[in-house]
Amino acid sequence: MKKIVILLGIPGSGKGTQASFITEKFGHRHISTGVLLRRLDADPNADPADKAKIAAMKSGHLVDSELIYRLVFREISQEIAAGQGVILDGAIRTLEQAEHYQEFFQTSGLVDEVQAIHLAMPDEVSVIRLSRRAVCTKCNFILTNPEAGQPELITCPKCQSPVTKRPDDQPEVVRERLHDQGNGALKPLVDFYAEHNVLATVDATEDIEHVAAAVAKALV
Ligand code: AMP
Questions:
Q1: Ligand 1 centroid vs 110 CA: distance in angstroms?
Q2: What is the pTM of this model?
Q3: Does the pLDDT at position 58 exceed 90?
């Protein structure tokens, strides 16, 4: 199995959930830029200039790439030095970022260790899934609320901590996110990894277990 697994997919396609399964099954470390950014935002000692850059995230837009590279390249280097593989969850969202990461992999001697998985799903499914998504405030477990009209979940089934809805999962912000991060924006990235012959595509509209099995098959 390759040391660098890149998960590509529109919001709500299951990148975080599938990354957790890959970690459980294969031991690769999960690097989620969303989690790193939200952690930075909550850190009272973080650089105010970095925190200011996170404002873009709250309104549904992409965060400055320079901050992403600074956060992620350090994590990748640390994990690889410790003998771990990594799963990059949402860490690459534009063609420019894909090219910059590729240079980083080249100079780090990792370019033959890259595998990309596209969790393919239409934009309309994203709107429905994100309207029902909630996340644990402690362990980041991702939950799906019952359909409208039924009571929403208030505690995490894994660790019993309170759950919350992400501000960027509000319907009006989701529409902004799909503009920057929907299938239109994802296509050049998918093409980039296909051209490098490192892409596998999985149907992400299937249920979680089916998707997990297809992802595991693509990885080994
Ligand atoms: P996620 O938790 O993966 O949905 O990411 C939440 C938000 O973080 C995204 O909507 C973006 O605003 C920001 N973000 C995460 N990864 C990146 C990235 N690679 N480039 C730019 N912004 C990002």
A1: 24
A2: 0.90
A3: no
